[in-house]
Structure formats: C-alpha cells, structure tokens
Write a structure and sequence with these properties.
It catalyses: [(1->4)-alpha-D-glucosyl](n) + ADP-alpha-D-glucose = [(1->4)-alpha-D-glucosyl](n+1) + ADP + H(+). Belongs to the glycosyltransferase 1 family. Bacterial/plant glycogen synthase subfamily. By secondary structure, the chain is of the alpha/beta class. Among the domains are: about 230 residues, Rossmann fold; about 190 residues, Rossmann fold. It has 19 helices and 25 strands. Helix 4 crosses helix 19 and helix 5 packs across helix 6. The longest helix is centred in the middle third of the chain and has 18 residues. The N terminus is likely disordered.
C-alpha cells in the first residue's frame, strides 16, 4: 500500500522548469516518466569527453560556487559522459550558452583520485590506505537471506571491504522458519544480549555470530524473525509488524558495536554505519537523537544507501511514539500525503517516513548507480523526496554495484555445462545447444536466443514484453523467460509457450542453476525495466558474452554502452543496445538492430561480446569508490540538529 501511495503521488508532481534541452550535444531520452504519460520527458546530455577531470565540490556545503541565485535557476544540469569517471557529474551552462560552470549536484571524482586507489583488472587486490570499523545494517545478506539485489550487495561488498583491510561487521535479523537453516547453522549464540526500548515496552534481543570470509556476520535474534515466508512477508502479503521488526533491528545494530566483543574487542564508538534502505533507516536518527546527546558515538558517521527509493517505510503518524525516539525529533520523520491521496475527508494525511529521516540525518547518501542518484532528485523519480534530496545534493553520490566475479565466471561456473573465455568462445556455442536441448527447443545454432530473467511485474516492463511478443515471434528467433510474480503474467507465459512450441519457453519460478545456464546460452538479454536503480542481470550477461538490450534508465544506462558500428575506424564500440522512450516500438526497434547484427555482421557481434566480457564488474572497483566516500564522510562533522 505504501509503495502504491507514493507512486500515486507522482501523478500530482510537476516537472521542474529547468529541464530544457541543449541543442549542442547529442541527447538520449531518459524517459523517467514511467508513471504517467502526462509527465514531461527527461533527456540527458553528454558533456566531459576524454580524460577530463571534474572538479569536486562535495565538501562545499554552500552548494554551487560562482553563479548567483538567479544564474543557478537559469542553468540546467547535464549528465556527464559515462566513462571511467565513477560518479555522475554535472556541467552547468547558462541559457544563452555564454557561460559554463563546472560543478556538481552529485559528487564527482577526478581520474587522479581514482588512480590513487590502484584498482585494475588482474592486479593484486589493493589495500586501503586508511581503514575503518564498518557496520553494515541490512534486512538481508546473501547467502543467509536474499530476495533481490539488496541481499547480493550486503553479502558481497562487506567481504571485499574486509579484503582491503577494513574491520567489517554485518548486522541483520536471524530469520528462522522453525529450525535453523543450513546457511546460518554455523552462527553461534554469543551469550550477549541487549534490551531495546520501543513500542511501549522493553524488548530483549540476543546476538548470534559467525566469522566468515574476514567479516563478522551478526544476527539479531527475536521471536518476530521466526516465522514462515521471506524477510518481509508471506503468501498473504507484507507482515503487519514490519515497522516493529526493523525498528528492533536498528536499535540492536546501534548496540552491537558497544556491547559485543568480537575477537575479544568491541568495534567501539568510532564506527562507520552503512544503513541500507528504509529497514535500516532509523540508525542515523538514533545516533543523532539517542546517543550523541549523551556523548556516545560522537566520532561515528552514518551513510544511508538507497537501493530502491520506492520503499520508504511509511506508516501512520501515531506510530511515531513506538519508535523509541524523543518527541522533538518527529519533524525528521514527518510525512504528509497530498489531499487527493487521502482516504476520506477527515484524513489529515499525516504519516511518518523512516527513509526520509535517514536522508535528513545521515552524514552522506549513496545510491547504487550513478544515473539513479540523478533520477531520485527529479520529480518523476523522487517519489515525493526529490526536493529533500536536492537540498542534500552535496552529500549525494552514486556508485554502481559490482558482482561476485567468482560466482559469475564463464570460465569456471559450476552451473553451466561448458566453460569458455574471451580467448575461446566455443564453449558458449555448446552452452546454447545444451540449453535448447534442455528446454525442448529445436537445436539451431544459427538462430538468436533472446532471454529474460526477472520478476514478472510492472517495474520490469513485463507488460511491454507481453505486448511485443506476437511481433517478436514473427522473427526467426527463440525466446526464453525465467521469472515469477504477477499470477496473470505467469499464466500468460504458460499460454504463450503453448502457442509457440518451437520458439518460446516460459519457466515460472526462479532457479539459480537455470539462471546461469540461460545467461550463458542466450545471445541477447532483454531488460525493458521502467526504472532500475542498478540492475545486475545486464552485468552477468555482458560477463558471459550475452548482449543486453535495455531501457535507458538508472543503472542500465550507466553500464550498457550503446553500440556504434562506425566508431573506432569501423571496428565499432559499445556493449549492447539502449532504447528510449519505453514503448513497444522503441524496444522492438532495438531488438531488430540486435537480431540484424547477429545475423549479418558476425565480426561486429563478436566485438560486442568481447568488449562486454573484458570490462571490470568486480566489487574491487566499487569498493575503491566507497573508500573515497568514507574519507569524505570523516572530513565533515557529524550531523547535528
């Protein structure tokens, strides 16, 4: 209900007037208007070419430097060309085109700064020059618990940070469905507990611990985490007490560094908290409201990491008293729905918004891709928080997620029947033939296989695929889909398979081994997501030599370089195809280009495959960027109300 209310609020939003197009640069439509066709289209322009460094204004709390207020309003922001620059930068130019100001609404990093981190493909793992005690607070962490990208990030990034010399702890709930699962069986009871005051009483939590891969994995044990279903709900829907369950997690996470000796020593007060999504959103508020006034955690810092802004932890205003916060901090969480979104005439629309409080009180804000960090500052992509995020633009960054390159490696993947590499691609052809045989499709090495892996829901653009399938099937292709979600879409997949027995296969559900085999065996991966904060499947695909065709949004825009056959003296450049706007026609146009290139231009296709496979998708690259943010967050003072 919360996500629906927030998304509905976008219909009433008016786009800002500073989104006019510059005619001096080639434009690509970002099409952020995924909720209403009446909202304006957004277009991104590409500045900064070559190795040009971008000035970093991150530590200037005043925002723009140089132009006066009128000129600020007269300028338009332009996304920097996505090269090796790890953060989205902006070039500001006045409407008359006579003045250009280098600045950033989001932090940027120069090439020289990134080089100091000594990150490179094939190089020995770098160690951080400065190390920190890092506490990652999350609702899920793979392999212990996972429903999506959040679990992947919080299961992989901590290990990489630990490899680089940091002391890292991950705090998440100890989910049980009656008996300890094999994944958490090695976590032992520390005999350490904490009492938490919230929801009108005192709750006692205990801590379980496992030391694995250089990381302290701490699990908060409480009866509210011991039930069937996933971390957030069951077959009926979301749990009614999720606010309580994750409030408990946040309070417990703040206590762990103080009370739990790991290796004989606690993490202590000088910690860096990484609070992931709304489930951990109370951590920055608790540090500011509950601990620092008493001299505790004065030297600690907090970063909120936004994986999906659509979920904000919005509940009725009356629940504020349950959160264990002083009454004077209500303003940090205050949220008011617009009049049209209220249920009846007496509804005041008052609510509390946990993610909002984290954005207000965290020392820095991160998102999981460069493009998404821009999108959430727009009225179309900000879910009602865009003005607040704009006001904190000087501490807002985007870092594209990495992937587990050991698990996702076509040269050693245990789930695929044949291995291959950029030097020898013959194994991919065999993987394709095996996949066709496994799924009962005609074994035709010459026919391109299009794949889709993901949830069957509106965000993933499944309705676009449904509408376009009859036209896709007119081509000599095979189409394989893997996913679950909307029951109507699951039924549609089954019906479509019956209609196109020799061309279409729909696997309802999710299966890790088959997802690997589809990634390796397909030629094209289709991702028409309406919005995608980062996206991982396109990264897996490129690593496996499978060409992504994606909607130009969020992390998809950042990671997939649109194919240009005329660049590099005719050798071509790019790793896939991006399309915009999000319409059936533009998606089909991109697919036709991909299919045509596969059939008629084998050398270009092989170039696409190899360019994708040779890119660095590792967490090492992302971790180096995180460390720069860690340095910055300790330069500035902690949040003070």
């Amino acid at each position: 209900m919360e996500a629906l209310q927030i998304s509905q609020a976008l219909f009433a939003s008016n786009p800002s007037k500073d989104s006019k197009l510059s005619k001096t640069h080639q434009t690509r439509r970002a099409d952020l208007c995924f909720f209403s066709s009446s909202l304006w289209d957004r277009r991104f322009e590409h500045g900064f070419s070559g190795a040009r460094s971008v000035k970093r204004w991150a530590r200037q709390q005043s925002g723009f430097s140089g132009p006066d207020e009128e000129k600020k309003n007269d300028c338009k922001a332009v996304l920097a060309k996505e090269r090796e620059v790890p953060f989205v930068g902006y070039r500001l130019e006045s409407q008359d085109g006579k003045e250009e100001i280098e600045s950033c609404s989001l932090d940027t990093i120069s090439d020289e700064e990134l080089e100091t981190k000594n990150v490179g493909v094939g190089e020995e793992k770098a160690k951080a020059k400065v190390t920190y005690n890092i506490v990652v607070v999350t609702a899920e962490a793979s392999p212990y618990s996972k429903t999506g990208g959040l679990g992947d990030v919080c299961g992989s990034l901590p290990i990489t940070l630990a490899d680089r010399g940091h002391r890292v702890m991950v705090v998440s709930p100890r989910y049980l469905t009656g008996n300890p699962s094999e994944k958490i069986r090695n976590a032992v009871d520390t005999q350490c507990s904490a009492k938490v005051s919230c929801f009108g009483g005192t709750q006692e939590v205990t801590f379980y611990h496992e030391y694995r891969a250089g990381v302290d994995w701490v699990f908060v044990d409480h009866p509210s985490y011991q039930r069937s279903g996933n971390p957030y709900g069951d077959s009926v829907g979301a749990y009614d007490d999720n606010q309580f369950r994750f409030t408990l997690l946040c309070h417990a996470a703040c206590e762990v560094p103080l009370v739990l000796p790991l290796g004989g020593v606690t993490y202590g007060e000088k910690c860096l908290f990484l609070a992931n999504d709304w489930h951990a959103g109370l951590v920055p508020v608790l540090l500011a409201a509950k601990y620092r006034p008493h001299g505790v955690y004065k030297d600690a810092r907090s970063i909120v990491v936004i994986h999906n802004l659509a979920h904000q932890g919005v509940e009725a205003a009356a629940t504020y008293q349950n959160l264990g916060l002083p009454s004077e901090w209500y303003g940090a969480l205050e949220w008011v729905f617009p009049t049209w979104a209220r249920t009846h005439a007496l509804d005041t629309g008052e609510a509390v918004n946990i993610l909002k409080s984290a954005i207000v009180t965290a020392d820095r804000i991160l998102t999981v891709s460069q493009g998404y960090s821009w999108e959430i500052t727009t009225s179309e992509g900000g879910y009602g928080l865009h003005d607040l995020l704009r006001s904190r633009k000087n501490v807002l960054n985007g870092i594209t997620n990495g992937i587990d390159v050991a698990e996702w490696n076509p040269a050693s993947d245990k789930h695929i029947p044949f291995h291959y590499s950029i030097e020898d691609l013959s194994g991919k052809v065999k993987c394709k033939e095996t996949l066709q045989k496994e799924l009962g499709l005609p074994i035709r090495p010459d026919v391109p296989i299009i794949g889709f892996i993901g949830r069957l829901d509106y965000q993933k653009g499944i309705d676009m695929i449904q509408a376009a399938t009859p036209e896709i099937m007119q081509h000599d292709v095979q189409f394989i889909m893997l996913g679950s979600g909307d029951p109507q879409m699951e039924d549609w997949m089954r019906a479509t398979e019956s209609s196109y027995r020799d061309k279409f296969r729909g696997w309802v559900g999710f299966n890790v081994p088959i997802s690997h085999r589809i990634t390796a065996g397909c030629d094209i991966l289709l991702m028409p997501s309406r919005f995608e904060p980062c996206g991982l499947n396109q990264l897996y695909a490129m690593r496996y030599g499978t060409i992504p065709v994606v909607h130009c949004t969020g992390g998809l825009r950042d990671t997939v370089v649109n194919f240009n056959p005329y660049a590099e003296g005719g050798k071509g450049e790019g790793t896939g195809w991006t399309f915009s706007p999000l319409t059936k026609e533009s998606m089909l146009s991109a697919l036709r280009l991909a299919i045509g290139t596969y059939r008629e231009h084998k050398s270009s296709w092989e170039g696409l495959m190899k360019r994708g496979m040779e890119r660095d998708y590792s967490w090492e690259h992302a971790a180096a960027q995180y460390e720069l943010i860690f340095e910055w967050v300790f330069v500035d003072p902690s949040y003070v109300r």
